Amino acid sequence: MPGHIYCFWAGRKGINTPLTSLQTIGKFGYIAALIPQYLSLCKMLPLFALPMMEMLSAVWGNFKFLLHSINIFFFWCWLEILGKQKTSPLTRKPEPEDGTKVKPTSVNYHFTRQCNYKCGFCFHTAKTSFVLPIEEAKRGLTMLKAAGMEKINFSGGEPFLQERGHYVGKLVQFCKEELKLPSVSIVSNGSLITERWFKLYGEYLDILAVSCDSFNEDVNKLIGRGQGKKNHVENLLKIRQWCQDYNVAFKINSVINRYNVDEDMNDEISLINPIRWKVFQCLIIEGENAGEEALRQVETFIISNKEFKGFLDRHRNIKCLVPESNEQMRNSYLILDEYMRFLDCRNGRKDPSKSILDVGIDNAIQFSGFDEKMFFKRGGKYVWSKADLRLEW
Protein backbone atom coordinates (compact mmCIF):
# COMPACT_ATOMS: atom_id res chain seq x y z
CA MET A 1 0.00 0.00 0.00
CA PRO A 2 1.44 3.42 -0.90
CA GLY A 3 2.62 5.43 2.02
CA HIS A 4 0.17 8.32 1.79
CA ILE A 5 -2.80 5.90 1.54
CA TYR A 6 -1.47 3.91 4.45
CA CYS A 7 -1.15 7.00 6.63
CA PHE A 8 -4.73 7.99 5.82
CA TRP A 9 -5.99 4.48 6.61
CA ALA A 10 -3.93 4.24 9.77
CA GLY A 11 -5.18 7.61 11.00
CA ARG A 12 -8.79 6.44 10.59
CA LYS A 13 -7.93 3.25 12.63
CA GLY A 14 -6.08 5.12 15.37
CA ILE A 15 -2.68 3.57 14.51
CA ASN A 16 0.39 5.67 15.14
CA THR A 17 2.38 6.36 12.01
CA PRO A 18 5.60 8.05 13.01
CA LEU A 19 7.27 10.22 10.48
CA THR A 20 10.11 7.79 10.30
CA SER A 21 7.86 5.14 8.77
CA LEU A 22 7.25 7.45 5.79
CA GLN A 23 10.87 8.46 5.59
CA THR A 24 11.84 4.84 5.19
CA ILE A 25 9.97 4.77 1.89
CA GLY A 26 12.17 7.56 0.70
CA LYS A 27 11.38 10.48 -1.56
CA PHE A 28 11.77 8.61 -4.84
CA GLY A 29 10.28 5.40 -3.59
CA TYR A 30 7.14 7.24 -2.55
CA ILE A 31 6.71 8.75 -6.02
CA ALA A 32 7.43 5.43 -7.72
CA ALA A 33 4.78 3.76 -5.59
CA LEU A 34 2.15 6.26 -6.81
CA ILE A 35 2.81 5.84 -10.56
CA PRO A 36 0.95 2.50 -11.06
CA GLN A 37 -2.10 3.91 -9.26
CA TYR A 38 -2.27 6.99 -11.51
CA LEU A 39 -1.74 4.92 -14.65
CA SER A 40 -4.58 2.66 -13.65
CA LEU A 41 -6.81 5.69 -13.07
CA CYS A 42 -5.93 7.14 -16.51
CA LYS A 43 -6.93 3.88 -18.15
CA MET A 44 -10.35 4.15 -16.53
CA LEU A 45 -11.02 7.77 -17.60
CA PRO A 46 -12.11 6.96 -21.21
CA LEU A 47 -14.70 4.55 -19.83
CA PHE A 48 -16.41 7.49 -18.09
CA ALA A 49 -15.46 10.32 -20.50
CA LEU A 50 -16.92 8.85 -23.70
CA PRO A 51 -20.48 8.35 -22.38
CA MET A 52 -20.33 11.79 -20.75
CA MET A 53 -19.26 13.44 -24.03
CA GLU A 54 -21.98 11.62 -25.94
CA MET A 55 -24.57 12.81 -23.42
CA LEU A 56 -23.34 16.42 -23.60
CA SER A 57 -23.35 16.25 -27.41
CA ALA A 58 -26.97 15.04 -27.40
CA VAL A 59 -28.01 17.79 -24.99
CA TRP A 60 -26.27 20.45 -27.10
CA GLY A 61 -27.94 19.13 -30.26
CA ASN A 62 -31.37 19.38 -28.63
CA PHE A 63 -30.57 22.86 -27.34
CA LYS A 64 -29.55 24.04 -30.82
CA PHE A 65 -32.79 22.64 -32.23
CA LEU A 66 -34.74 24.50 -29.53
CA LEU A 67 -32.98 27.80 -30.32
CA HIS A 68 -33.63 27.30 -34.04
CA SER A 69 -37.33 26.65 -33.34
CA ILE A 70 -37.57 29.79 -31.19
CA ASN A 71 -35.96 31.87 -33.96
CA ILE A 72 -38.44 30.52 -36.52
CA PHE A 73 -41.36 31.25 -34.17
CA PHE A 74 -40.34 34.87 -33.55
CA PHE A 75 -39.63 35.43 -37.26
CA TRP A 76 -43.12 34.14 -38.07
CA CYS A 77 -44.62 36.48 -35.43
CA TRP A 78 -42.71 39.40 -36.94
CA LEU A 79 -44.06 38.63 -40.39
CA GLU A 80 -47.60 38.39 -39.00
CA ILE A 81 -47.28 41.79 -37.31
CA LEU A 82 -45.94 43.41 -40.48
CA GLY A 83 -48.74 41.85 -42.49
CA LYS A 84 -51.35 43.43 -40.22
CA GLN A 85 -49.73 46.85 -40.20
CA LYS A 86 -51.22 49.34 -42.62
CA THR A 87 -47.79 50.30 -43.87
CA SER A 88 -44.69 48.19 -44.20
CA PRO A 89 -41.44 49.91 -43.28
CA LEU A 90 -40.04 48.36 -46.46
CA THR A 91 -42.46 50.35 -48.64
CA ARG A 92 -42.60 53.68 -46.81
CA LYS A 93 -40.18 56.35 -47.91
CA PRO A 94 -39.25 58.55 -44.97
CA GLU A 95 -37.40 61.14 -47.03
CA PRO A 96 -38.28 63.13 -50.16
CA GLU A 97 -36.74 61.43 -53.18
CA ASP A 98 -34.52 64.41 -54.01
CA GLY A 99 -33.31 64.66 -50.41
CA THR A 100 -34.70 68.15 -49.85
CA LYS A 101 -36.38 69.15 -46.63
CA VAL A 102 -40.16 69.47 -46.85
CA LYS A 103 -41.51 72.84 -45.75
CA PRO A 104 -45.11 72.88 -44.44
CA THR A 105 -46.12 75.95 -46.46
CA SER A 106 -49.80 75.02 -46.63
CA VAL A 107 -51.36 72.59 -44.13
CA ASN A 108 -54.83 71.05 -43.98
CA TYR A 109 -55.79 70.28 -40.38
CA HIS A 110 -58.73 67.85 -40.12
CA PHE A 111 -59.21 68.37 -36.39
CA THR A 112 -62.45 66.35 -36.27
CA ARG A 113 -63.85 63.39 -38.19
CA GLN A 114 -67.42 63.89 -36.99
CA CYS A 115 -69.96 65.15 -39.54
CA ASN A 116 -73.71 65.74 -39.80
CA TYR A 117 -73.79 64.80 -43.51
CA LYS A 118 -73.41 61.33 -45.06
CA CYS A 119 -71.74 61.90 -48.41
CA GLY A 120 -71.29 58.52 -50.03
CA PHE A 121 -67.81 59.27 -51.42
CA CYS A 122 -66.38 60.85 -48.24
CA PHE A 123 -62.65 60.13 -47.92
CA HIS A 124 -62.22 61.32 -44.32
CA THR A 125 -64.91 59.50 -42.37
CA ALA A 126 -66.03 59.49 -38.71
CA LYS A 127 -63.73 56.68 -37.55
CA THR A 128 -63.06 58.46 -34.23
CA SER A 129 -64.72 61.19 -32.17
CA PHE A 130 -61.42 62.53 -30.84
CA VAL A 131 -60.67 66.26 -30.82
CA LEU A 132 -57.51 67.71 -29.27
CA PRO A 133 -57.84 70.07 -26.31
CA ILE A 134 -57.65 73.52 -27.86
CA GLU A 135 -54.41 74.45 -26.08
CA GLU A 136 -52.71 71.36 -27.53
CA ALA A 137 -54.02 72.26 -30.98
CA LYS A 138 -52.60 75.77 -30.55
CA ARG A 139 -49.24 74.31 -29.52
CA GLY A 140 -49.12 72.24 -32.70
CA LEU A 141 -50.09 75.22 -34.85
CA THR A 142 -47.34 77.28 -33.23
CA MET A 143 -44.84 74.54 -34.09
CA LEU A 144 -46.04 74.53 -37.71
CA LYS A 145 -45.67 78.31 -37.96
CA ALA A 146 -42.10 78.06 -36.67
CA ALA A 147 -41.40 75.41 -39.34
CA GLY A 148 -42.56 77.74 -42.15
CA MET A 149 -46.34 77.37 -42.41
CA GLU A 150 -47.99 80.27 -44.26
CA LYS A 151 -51.51 78.92 -44.74
CA ILE A 152 -53.71 76.78 -42.51
CA ASN A 153 -56.97 75.23 -43.68
CA PHE A 154 -59.36 73.83 -41.06
CA SER A 155 -61.49 70.93 -42.20
CA GLY A 156 -63.21 67.78 -40.98
CA GLY A 157 -65.58 66.09 -40.75
CA GLU A 158 -67.61 69.19 -40.26
CA PRO A 159 -65.54 71.83 -38.41
CA PHE A 160 -68.59 73.78 -37.17
CA LEU A 161 -69.88 70.80 -35.16
CA GLN A 162 -67.35 71.24 -32.36
CA GLU A 163 -68.64 73.71 -29.75
CA ARG A 164 -71.12 75.07 -32.33
CA GLY A 165 -68.30 76.59 -34.32
CA HIS A 166 -66.52 78.28 -31.42
CA TYR A 167 -63.67 75.74 -31.41
CA VAL A 168 -62.72 76.45 -35.02
CA GLY A 169 -63.47 80.16 -34.49
CA LYS A 170 -60.97 80.38 -31.64
CA LEU A 171 -58.33 78.59 -33.71
CA VAL A 172 -58.96 80.95 -36.64
CA GLN A 173 -58.55 83.95 -34.34
CA PHE A 174 -55.40 82.49 -32.76
CA CYS A 175 -53.79 81.82 -36.15
CA LYS A 176 -54.48 85.31 -37.41
CA GLU A 177 -53.92 87.37 -34.23
CA GLU A 178 -51.18 85.43 -32.45
CA LEU A 179 -49.40 83.54 -35.24
CA LYS A 180 -50.11 86.24 -37.84
CA LEU A 181 -50.46 83.70 -40.63
CA PRO A 182 -50.97 85.22 -44.10
CA SER A 183 -53.88 82.90 -44.81
CA VAL A 184 -56.49 81.14 -42.63
CA SER A 185 -59.30 79.20 -44.29
CA ILE A 186 -62.09 76.73 -43.52
CA VAL A 187 -63.83 74.04 -45.59
CA SER A 188 -67.40 73.35 -44.44
CA ASN A 189 -70.65 71.88 -45.71
CA GLY A 190 -72.22 75.18 -44.57
CA SER A 191 -75.19 73.68 -42.73
CA LEU A 192 -74.22 74.95 -39.25
CA ILE A 193 -72.75 78.37 -40.06
CA THR A 194 -74.56 81.38 -38.62
CA GLU A 195 -74.27 85.11 -39.11
CA ARG A 196 -73.36 85.43 -35.43
CA TRP A 197 -70.24 83.36 -36.13
CA PHE A 198 -69.20 85.87 -38.80
CA LYS A 199 -69.71 88.71 -36.33
CA LEU A 200 -67.41 87.02 -33.81
CA TYR A 201 -64.71 85.56 -36.05
CA GLY A 202 -65.21 86.77 -39.63
CA GLU A 203 -62.48 89.41 -39.47
CA TYR A 204 -59.86 86.71 -38.79
CA LEU A 205 -60.88 84.44 -41.68
CA ASP A 206 -59.42 84.86 -45.17
CA ILE A 207 -61.31 82.21 -47.13
CA LEU A 208 -64.44 80.14 -46.49
CA ALA A 209 -64.97 77.18 -48.82
CA VAL A 210 -68.40 75.56 -48.91
CA SER A 211 -68.83 72.10 -50.44
CA CYS A 212 -71.52 71.95 -53.11
CA ASP A 213 -71.63 69.11 -55.65
CA SER A 214 -74.84 70.02 -57.43
CA PHE A 215 -77.34 72.83 -57.85
CA ASN A 216 -80.08 70.24 -58.06
CA GLU A 217 -81.32 69.53 -54.53
CA ASP A 218 -82.44 66.01 -55.46
CA VAL A 219 -78.92 65.17 -56.61
CA ASN A 220 -77.47 66.57 -53.37
CA LYS A 221 -79.75 64.26 -51.41
CA LEU A 222 -78.70 61.26 -53.52
CA ILE A 223 -75.07 62.08 -52.79
CA GLY A 224 -75.71 62.49 -49.06
CA ARG A 225 -75.44 66.29 -48.80
CA GLY A 226 -78.63 66.92 -46.97
CA GLN A 227 -79.99 67.39 -43.46
CA GLY A 228 -83.71 67.16 -42.95
CA LYS A 229 -85.70 69.93 -44.62
CA LYS A 230 -82.71 72.26 -45.09
CA ASN A 231 -82.02 73.19 -48.68
CA HIS A 232 -78.30 72.93 -49.35
CA VAL A 233 -78.26 75.32 -52.30
CA GLU A 234 -80.30 77.99 -50.51
CA ASN A 235 -77.95 77.78 -47.56
CA LEU A 236 -74.96 78.14 -49.90
CA LEU A 237 -76.34 81.39 -51.29
CA LYS A 238 -76.99 82.75 -47.80
CA ILE A 239 -73.41 82.06 -46.73
CA ARG A 240 -72.11 83.64 -49.92
CA GLN A 241 -73.91 86.85 -48.92
CA TRP A 242 -72.50 86.76 -45.39
CA CYS A 243 -69.00 86.41 -46.83
CA GLN A 244 -69.58 89.55 -48.83
CA ASP A 245 -70.98 91.40 -45.80
CA TYR A 246 -68.07 90.46 -43.55
CA ASN A 247 -65.27 90.65 -46.15
CA VAL A 248 -64.40 86.96 -46.37
CA ALA A 249 -63.35 85.43 -49.68
CA PHE A 250 -65.85 82.80 -50.84
CA LYS A 251 -64.87 79.52 -52.47
CA ILE A 252 -66.78 76.44 -53.69
CA ASN A 253 -65.54 72.84 -53.61
CA SER A 254 -67.25 70.26 -55.83
CA VAL A 255 -66.59 66.51 -56.05
CA ILE A 256 -67.46 65.22 -59.51
CA ASN A 257 -69.00 61.75 -59.33
CA ARG A 258 -71.49 59.46 -61.04
CA TYR A 259 -74.51 61.57 -59.98
CA ASN A 260 -73.33 65.00 -61.17
CA VAL A 261 -70.82 64.29 -63.95
CA ASP A 262 -73.33 65.26 -66.64
CA GLU A 263 -74.59 68.42 -64.94
CA ASP A 264 -74.04 71.88 -66.43
CA MET A 265 -73.15 74.34 -63.65
CA ASN A 266 -72.00 77.25 -65.80
CA ASP A 267 -74.85 79.62 -65.00
CA GLU A 268 -74.86 79.02 -61.23
CA ILE A 269 -71.09 79.34 -60.80
CA SER A 270 -71.00 82.49 -62.92
CA LEU A 271 -73.78 84.03 -60.83
CA ILE A 272 -72.19 83.17 -57.46
CA ASN A 273 -68.73 84.23 -58.69
CA PRO A 274 -66.47 82.51 -56.10
CA ILE A 275 -62.78 83.42 -56.00
CA ARG A 276 -62.02 79.73 -56.70
CA TRP A 277 -64.07 76.77 -57.79
CA LYS A 278 -62.16 73.62 -56.85
CA VAL A 279 -63.37 70.70 -58.95
CA PHE A 280 -62.19 67.29 -57.66
CA GLN A 281 -62.44 63.93 -59.35
CA CYS A 282 -64.04 61.45 -56.95
CA LEU A 283 -61.17 59.66 -55.18
CA ILE A 284 -60.84 56.15 -53.72
CA ILE A 285 -59.06 55.89 -50.34
CA GLU A 286 -58.69 52.43 -48.83
CA GLY A 287 -60.02 52.25 -45.29
CA GLU A 288 -62.09 55.42 -45.70
CA ASN A 289 -64.45 54.85 -48.63
CA ALA A 290 -63.30 51.43 -49.84
CA GLY A 291 -62.50 48.08 -48.22
CA GLU A 292 -63.88 46.08 -45.30
CA GLU A 293 -62.90 48.63 -42.64
CA ALA A 294 -64.40 51.60 -44.53
CA LEU A 295 -67.49 53.47 -43.32
CA ARG A 296 -68.36 54.45 -46.91
CA GLN A 297 -68.30 52.49 -50.18
CA VAL A 298 -67.40 54.73 -53.09
CA GLU A 299 -67.65 52.24 -55.97
CA THR A 300 -70.99 53.53 -57.28
CA PHE A 301 -69.69 57.13 -57.32
CA ILE A 302 -66.48 56.59 -59.30
CA ILE A 303 -66.05 58.12 -62.76
CA SER A 304 -63.37 57.60 -65.39
CA ASN A 305 -60.66 60.09 -66.34
CA LYS A 306 -62.44 60.57 -69.66
CA GLU A 307 -65.71 61.44 -67.92
CA PHE A 308 -63.93 63.89 -65.62
CA LYS A 309 -62.29 65.55 -68.62
CA GLY A 310 -65.71 65.86 -70.25
CA PHE A 311 -67.01 67.76 -67.21
CA LEU A 312 -64.01 70.09 -67.30
CA ASP A 313 -64.44 70.72 -71.02
CA ARG A 314 -68.09 71.66 -70.45
CA HIS A 315 -66.99 74.32 -67.92
CA ARG A 316 -63.79 75.47 -69.63
CA ASN A 317 -64.96 79.08 -69.80
CA ILE A 318 -65.25 79.42 -66.02
CA LYS A 319 -62.13 81.42 -65.13
CA CYS A 320 -62.11 80.53 -61.42
CA LEU A 321 -62.22 76.75 -62.08
CA VAL A 322 -59.29 74.84 -60.57
CA PRO A 323 -59.40 71.16 -61.59
CA GLU A 324 -57.86 68.32 -59.59
CA SER A 325 -57.74 64.81 -60.97
CA ASN A 326 -56.96 61.81 -58.79
CA GLU A 327 -53.30 62.05 -59.80
CA GLN A 328 -53.08 65.74 -58.92
CA MET A 329 -54.95 65.41 -55.65
CA ARG A 330 -53.65 62.25 -53.99
CA ASN A 331 -50.21 63.30 -52.69
CA SER A 332 -50.19 67.07 -53.13
CA TYR A 333 -51.76 67.96 -49.77
CA LEU A 334 -50.12 68.10 -46.35
CA ILE A 335 -52.88 66.56 -44.22
CA LEU A 336 -52.95 66.49 -40.41
CA ASP A 337 -55.51 64.26 -38.74
CA GLU A 338 -57.26 64.77 -35.40
CA TYR A 339 -54.13 63.65 -33.49
CA MET A 340 -51.93 66.02 -35.53
CA ARG A 341 -50.37 63.15 -37.47
CA PHE A 342 -49.43 63.62 -41.12
CA LEU A 343 -51.32 61.25 -43.43
CA ASP A 344 -49.42 59.53 -46.23
CA CYS A 345 -51.72 58.65 -49.18
CA ARG A 346 -49.09 57.25 -51.56
CA ASN A 347 -50.27 53.66 -51.18
CA GLY A 348 -53.92 54.49 -51.77
CA ARG A 349 -54.76 54.73 -48.07
CA LYS A 350 -54.02 57.11 -45.20
CA ASP A 351 -50.96 55.91 -43.30
CA PRO A 352 -50.32 58.14 -40.25
CA SER A 353 -46.99 59.42 -39.03
CA LYS A 354 -46.36 59.98 -35.34
CA SER A 355 -47.93 63.14 -33.94
CA ILE A 356 -46.01 66.37 -34.39
CA LEU A 357 -46.77 67.02 -30.71
CA ASP A 358 -44.66 63.97 -29.79
CA VAL A 359 -41.82 63.91 -32.32
CA GLY A 360 -41.73 67.41 -33.83
CA ILE A 361 -42.37 68.68 -37.36
CA ASP A 362 -39.14 67.56 -39.04
CA ASN A 363 -39.54 63.96 -37.88
CA ALA A 364 -43.25 63.57 -38.62
CA ILE A 365 -43.27 65.33 -41.98
CA GLN A 366 -40.80 62.80 -43.39
CA PHE A 367 -43.69 60.31 -43.41
CA SER A 368 -46.26 62.63 -44.99
CA GLY A 369 -45.76 61.39 -48.55
CA PHE A 370 -46.08 65.01 -49.66
CA ASP A 371 -45.36 65.72 -53.34
CA GLU A 372 -44.29 69.36 -53.26
CA LYS A 373 -43.77 69.53 -57.03
CA MET A 374 -47.36 68.43 -57.66
CA PHE A 375 -48.53 70.92 -55.01
CA PHE A 376 -47.11 73.80 -57.07
CA LYS A 377 -48.11 72.20 -60.38
CA ARG A 378 -51.79 72.00 -59.40
CA GLY A 379 -51.77 75.66 -58.30
CA GLY A 380 -51.56 75.01 -54.57
CA LYS A 381 -49.79 78.32 -54.00
CA TYR A 382 -51.95 81.28 -54.99
CA VAL A 383 -53.06 84.68 -53.67
CA TRP A 384 -54.63 83.36 -50.48
CA SER A 385 -54.69 86.32 -48.12
CA LYS A 386 -57.74 88.60 -48.25
CA ALA A 387 -55.40 91.53 -47.63
CA ASP A 388 -53.99 90.85 -51.11
CA LEU A 389 -57.23 89.81 -52.78
CA ARG A 390 -59.42 92.22 -54.69
CA LEU A 391 -62.80 91.02 -53.56
CA GLU A 392 -65.11 92.13 -56.32
CA TRP A 393 -68.64 91.39 -55.21
Q: Layout of SSEs?
A:
Elements (H helix, E strand, L loop, with lengths): L2 H11 L5 H5 L3 H58 L21 E5 L23 H13 L4 E5 L10 H13 L4 E6 L6 H7 L5 E5 L5 H7 L8 H14 L3 E8 L9 H7 L3 E6 L23 H10 L6 E4 L1 H5 L3 E3 L4 E4 L6 E5 H4 L1 H5 L6 H6 L16
Parallel strand pairs: 1-2, 1-8, 2-3, 3-4, 4-5, 5-6, 6-7
Antiparallel strand pairs: 9-10
Report a brief summary of the structure.
The protein has 393 residues and is of the alpha/beta class. The protein is 42% helix and 13% strand.
Question: Can you describe this structure?
Answer:
Helix content is 42%, strand content 13%. It is an alpha/beta fold. It folds into 2 domains: 3-69, no CATH class; 106-377, Alpha-Beta Barrel (TIM Barrel), CATH 3.20.20. Strands 7-6-5-4-3-2-1-8 form an 8-stranded parallel beta sheet. Helix 4 (134-146) packs parallel to helix 5 (166-178). The chain starts with a helix and ends in a 16-residue tail after the last helix. Belongs to the radical SAM superfamily. RSAD2 family. Its cofactor is [4Fe-4S] cluster. One of its GO terms (biological process) is innate immune response.
List keywords for this structure.
single chain; 393 residues; alpha/beta; TIM Barrel; eight-stranded parallel β-sheet; two-stranded antiparallel sheet; 14 helices; 13% strand; metal ion binding; 4 iron, 4 sulfur cluster binding; immunity; innate immunity; iron
Major sheet description: 8 strands, parallel
CATH architecture of the largest domain: Alpha-Beta Barrel
- Gross morphology is elongated
Radius of gyration: 39 Å
Strand order of the largest sheet: 7-6-5-4-3-2-1-8
Q: Tell me the series of helices and strands, N- to C-terminal.
A: HHHEHEHEHEHHEHEHEHEEEHHH
CATH class designation of the largest domain: Alpha Beta
Share of β-strand residues: 5-15%
CATH superfamily of the largest domain: Aldolase class I
Distance between the termini: 127 Å
Helix segment tally: 14
Task: List segments where confidence is low: pLDDT < 50 over at least 5 consecutive residues.
Answer: 1-25, 83-93
Helix fraction by DSSP (H/I, runs of at least 4): 40-55%
Question: Which fold name corresponds to the CATH topology of the largest domain?
Answer: TIM Barrel
The number of distinct structural domains comes to 2
